[in-house]
Amino acid sequence: MERTFAILKPDAVERNLIGKILERVESNGFKIAAMKKALLTKPQAEGFYYVHKERPFFGSLTEFMCSGPVILLVLEKENAITAWRDLMGATNPEEADEGTIRKDFAVNIEKNSTHGSDSAENAAFEISYFFSELEIL
Ligand code: ADP
Ligand code: MG
Q: Which residues does ligand 1 sit against, CB inside 6 Å?
């Protein structure tokens, strides 16, 4: 079993899409190992996305990520990291495959409804950024 870290971003929570997205999570065989709702502070969002700090969209992205509550998730499945990124679809919903979460729900390339770790190393960092081992069941 592999773990990945996911976020239901403010645009998804705000549009009452938590249930619809979690239905896809569970029906695609992921176990929800940890879950909580949070309102990120700007420093928390900046620390989480520090790998993107030189990107032109960093300011706007971190503002967006603390503009409303999010759902933080640890997901478990075989090859969870790749499987969750496949289920999310491409970063830009205009380029996302049919049937993916971002194709079906994202507003635009920034407000793209979900986050998913892109490597084992980043998944470990991102999980530990928000959850203690005792909260992951
Ligand atoms: P992903 O979330 O698919 O791993 P990235 O790690 O490249 O994508 O980017 C992190 C997040 O930053 C994206 O999910 C999206 O919310 C935002 N983002 C990425 N590229 C852009 C862009 N060109 N313009 C605005 N926001 C962007
Ligand atoms: Mg990424």
A: 52, 57, 61, 91, 109-110, 112, 115, 118
pLDDT in tens for each of the 137 residues of the chain?
999 999 999 999 999 999 999 999 999 999 999 999 999 999 999 999 999 999 999 999 999 999 999 999 999 999 999 999 999 999 999 999 999 999 999 999 999 999 999 999 999 999 999 999 999 99
Separation between Cα atoms, residue 103 and residue 80, nearest integer Å: 20
DSSP secondary structure code for residue 94 in this structure? G
Question: Residue 95 gets which letter from DSSP?
Answer: G
**Phi, psi dihedrals of residue 17, rounded to the nearest 5°:** -105, 10
Q: What global pTM score does this model have?
A: 0.98
Ligand showing the shortest atom-to-Cα distance for residue 84 = 1
